[in-house]
Amino acid sequence: MLASLSRGFFLTLADSASLKRLASRYGMRGREGFARRFIGGETLDEAIETASQLERRGLLHTLNHLGEHVRTVAKAEAATVEYLTIIERVRSARLTCNLSLKLTQLGLELDRATAATNLRRILEAAEQGHGFVRIDMENSPIVSATLELFETLWQQGHRNVGVVLQAALYRSADDLRRMNALGARVRLVKGAYKEPERVAYQQKAAVDAAFLRLMCGLLQDGAYPAIATHDPKMIQAGCAFAREHGISTDRFEFQMLYGVRRDLQASLHAQGYRLRIYLPFGHEWFPYFMRRLAERPANVAFVIKGVLHEHVGQGQAFGKH
Ligand code: FDA
User: Fold this and answer.
1) What's the pLDDT score for residue 317?
2) Which pLDDT belongs to residue 311?
3) What is the distance between the alpha carbons of residues 67 and 264, in angstroms, rounded to a whole number?
4) Secondary structure of 103-158 in HEC code, one letter for each residue
5) Which residues line ligand 1 (CB under 6 A)?
6) Which of the four CATH numbers 3.40.50.2000, 2.60.34.10, 3.40.50.800, 3.20.20.220 does domain 45-284 have?
7) What does pLDDT average to in each consecutive run of 10 residues of the chain (321 residues)?
8) Ligand 1: distance of its center to the CA of 289 in Å?
């Protein structure tokens, strides 16, 4: 039954303010809160602790302070200051850590100049410790503005910044050629948003085929590509392509989300591939969490078990992946 719930259903629920209020009350409560599976903590202290644990296990990681679509300049400023604080804390904890952020978190929907100024401040702070900042890719109406802002900063000489391209979008093949020609670092993903047919493939098979094409182009011509997927077929194809084309394992990395396919994470790491874990944290975890449910409705069972665990105080909250 759970498997039949559609991706669109969860992505629609992600916009529900009342569900968000209800979930926020329970999701991160106590050690067994049902969202803890995917969220590295609500506070920076918790996130630093989780990041340290990953680093001790030899895993690369990227911290993301959750938040998107801010509605005021003051909130964009607060998000920027939070990132500047993260950079300092990461440095003082001596962690080797990338950052990921969303431009709508820095005010892109208010005005581009605000977002550009905020991003520049973050890049300059990160640059001092050789830190790298990835701009996550949001839904299709935001894509052009995101790439344009990235290219402006690139032309201004910033090199510690990279982008994300979504295989689901038809435009990504052209975007990839442009990014490869620039020498920009790209993270390739399938795409987490519900998009209209006018801009995106609707069938999983078509998205997977596009992912394979883009992945080969990225491994062949890209600058230190990041292949971000939990799909064993894509991962196997990526490893095979790299082997056949003499691309050594230090010239690219795989990336996966915190809490997703931990079995596969362990196996890739054990085989000697570079693996980076995307580690989100903060109070604004609801939309991110709902996108994870949309990718795998069976995760709802984990949530229900987690809630039951809290109320009856028994059982294991989450399954294997
Ligand atoms: P697919 O959805 O086909 O899943 C393959 C297999 O992976 C499933 O069969 C299941 O076993 C497992 N799996 C996938 N999702 C799971 C989940 N939530 N829980 C449990 N198992 C799961 N998107 C975007 O639009 N913009 C962005 O900036 C990013 N950034 C990003 C960073 C990183 C590091 C990753 C890994 C992913 C993103 N994404 C993203 C999300 C991406 O677009 C996509 O929605 C998810 O990665 C799921 O797609 P898969 O490639 O894993 O394949």
Assistant:
1) 32
2) 54
3) 28
4) HHHCCCCCCHHHHHHHHHHHHHHHHHCCCCEEECCCCHHHHHHHHHHHHHHHHCCC
5) 136-137, 164, 166, 189-193, 228-231, 255-257, 260-261, 278, 292, 295-296, 299, 321
6) 3.20.20.220
7) 61 70 71 84 95 96 95 96 97 95 97 96 94 97 98 97 98 98 98 96 97 98 98 98 97 96 95 97 89 80 62 40 37
8) 12
Q: Which residues fall within 8 angstroms of residue 167, CB to CB, at 6 or more apart?
A: 188, 189, 190, 191, 201, 207, 208, 210, 211, 214
Which pLDDT score, from 0 to 100, does residue 287 have?
Answer: 86
Q: 295 alpha carbon to ligand 1 midpoint, in Å? A: 7
Which atom in ligand 1 lies closest to the alpha carbon of residue 229? 51
What DSSP designation does 233 have?
A: H
Q: Parse the chain into domains and list their residue ranges.
A: 45-284
Q: Which residues are catalytic?
A: 136, 187
pLDDT at 315: 38
- How many A from CA of 222 to the centre of ligand 1? 21
Q: What angle do CA 261, 319, 202 make, to 5 degrees?
A: 50
Q: What is the pLDDT of residue 297?
A: 74
